[in-house]
Amino acid sequence: MPVETWLYFIIGFMILGSIAALELTDLLSAVVAMGMVGLGLAIAFLLLQAPDLALVQFVIEILSVIILIVMLRSTNQRWEEEKEPPAMSILKMAFVAVAMIASLPLFLGLPQFGQPLLEVSSHYLAEGLRETGSPNLLTAIILDYRVYDTLGEAIVIFVSVIGVMTIFRNKRKGGTGNGS
Amino acid sequence: MIYSMCFMLFLVGLYGVLIKRNIIKIILSVGIMGYAINLFLILIAYQEGSDFPILTPAETSKAMVDPLPQALVLTSIVIELSTTALLVALAIKIYQRYHTFDIRKIRRLRG
């Protein structure tokens, strides 16, 4: 079977899984359905010839499911009780449907699936090994051509770790009678 | 056609952000939107009948897929995890203060 057929199957699976994740009232099941969607994405990356991404997505997905389950555990909330009134949700679904229909012409302007525009990348593919000495061209781009991008990524992760630490430190301060 | 299916996945996430009132559901929807964007960029990069962008000693003359979007998506996946972690920390903090995940009930200020 061609890759495209498999991709239709996997993306359909991901859409169904995300609808399940949003509509289940049991929050733990919703988190598990979300993990299923992420693992489906890892398989899609494998089909699209991106093995490095598939590995990273696999690990990151498991970590994020663990983080979400830890959140459910520490707050002891298992069920979703809140419901949107039906009139509002019909209005918003209509908005989403209009967005779907209005954006369909946008996809006609894109290059055909399977024929990418290799403009900058053709240089990387041809000269990457000679200029950087890395047989893995992904590593060549991440750690040589676009190294400032990776530096920015590290800064973002650092800032988010600082943010999480700050949020949880304030909790202890409030407990010692700071008046807040 | 396959791009518009990917966009449908994005719209499912948008629907969740718009309609759901529970903070956990909103975090999940933001994650779904991120997945759709990553998948879209990798779909753009795919080349028919070509190999992954790793040079092997066998020197096959096969074409390779576009490595640039893959490298940038690798960054984006990791940043998404840190976003999720920050959102979860904020949600836990909100729950400790208001004892609810309903975004309509956490409006009032509490000293």
From the structure above, extract its key features:
heterodimer, A: 180 residues, mainly alpha, 2 domains, 7 helices, 76% helix, B: 111 residues, Helix Hairpins, 0% strand, elongated
Task: Outline the fold blueprint.
The complex is a heterodimer of chains A (180) and B (111).
Chain A: H1 3-23, H2 27-47, H3 51-75, H4 86-103, H5 120-132, H6 137-145, H7 147-175
Chain B: H1 2-19, H2 23-45, H3 67-98
Helix pairs in contact in B: 1-2, 2-3
Number of distinct helices of chain B:
3
Number of helices of chain A: 7
Number of distinct beta strands of chain B: 0
N-to-C span of chain A:
62 Å
Low-confidence stretches of chain A: none
Strand content of chain B: under 5%
Ends distance of chain B: 53 Å
Largest sheet of chain A: none
Number of domains of chain B: 1
Number of separate domains of chain A:
2
Question: Element order, helices and strands of chain A?
Answer: HHHHHHH
The radius of gyration computed from the alpha-carbon positions of chain A, rounded to a whole number of angstroms, is: 22 Å
Question: Got a strand count of chain A?
Answer: 0
Give the radius of gyration of chain B: 20 Å
Shape of chain A from CA axes?
A: globular
Give the DSSP E fraction of chain A (strand runs of 2 or more residues). Answer: under 5%
List the helices and strands of chain B in order.
HHH
Mean pLDDT of chain A: 86
Helical residues, percent of chain A:
over 70%
Describe this entry's structure for a reader.
- The complex is a heterodimer of chains A (180) and B (111).
- With 180 residues, chain A is an all-alpha fold.
- Chain A is built from seven helices and no strands.
- Chain A has helices at 3-23, 27-47, 51-75, 86-103, 120-132, 137-145, 147-175.
- In chain A, helix 1 packs antiparallel against helix 2 and helix 5 crosses helix 6 (137-145).
- The relative contact order of chain A is 0.06.
- By secondary structure, chain B is mainly alpha-helical.
- Chain B has one domain: Orthogonal Bundle (Helix Hairpins), CATH 1.10.287.
- The chains are: A mainly alpha (180), B mainly alpha (111).
